[in-house]
Amino acid sequence: MSPAAPASQGGGFDVPPTPLPRTTPEPASPIARPTAPPRDEPAGAPVPGGHGAGAGRARLVVLAGPTAVGKGTVAAWIREHHPEVWMSVSATTRPPRPGEIDGRHYRFLSGDDFAARVAAGDFLEWATVHGRHCYGTLRGPVERALAGGTPVLLEIDLQGARQVRRTMPDAVFVFLAPPSWDELVNRLVGRGTESAAERAARLETARVELAAAHEFDHVIVNHDVRTAGEELVSLLGSSAAGARVGETGQRA
Hints:
Largest sheet: 5 strands, parallel
Strand content: 15-25%
Structural class: alpha/beta
Strand order of the largest sheet: 2-7-1-8-9
Radius of gyration: 18 Å
Distance between the termini: 27 Å
Shape: globular
Oligomer: single chain
């Protein structure tokens, strides 16, 4: 298993030198590693993702990357083959779609309930998507899983990762990168789920997202799902890296 490449090495992908005009503004606040001790932890204590964390301590790993890079596919592979990793479930104000189960696919909240939880500081991160529905990650379930010694994976977008850096600064932040720009374009086109205009907009956003790779603690290049998944699991702590179910294993 190859170690994850540090962000300073660039992640092994090349973005075309002439950028398209941006229609999606780049978030203003980059991820910055804080210097103060984390909230509710005494100075010098090991923390769940900090570089001084003790061996085997459960960690929160935050996975981000550009559109179509395969974050969801890698996360699904980990869910299937590493059931010891707890996968965060997003909360949303949108109504359930057919077949979706509350608490498994999403935590479905009313607009008033979501707003009250935002006001109470219950979210690690949240955003309004496309000006319609709100999505976010509740702090409580993540903290309870970590307190119980369970490694946690949070798959999220760039802006969400920047918020989590502020709310849980000792998490491990991982950027999933494509092998090349051409490969990213091929994956997006191959999905066949967007119109030409939507693909162009997503690629413009992807350029912005790729430029943020240096903000992360680690960069993993997604050459193939299994290798990327195992590299990601290795960052979750020894208990996760040391356990694996069979090829057909399912998370309970």
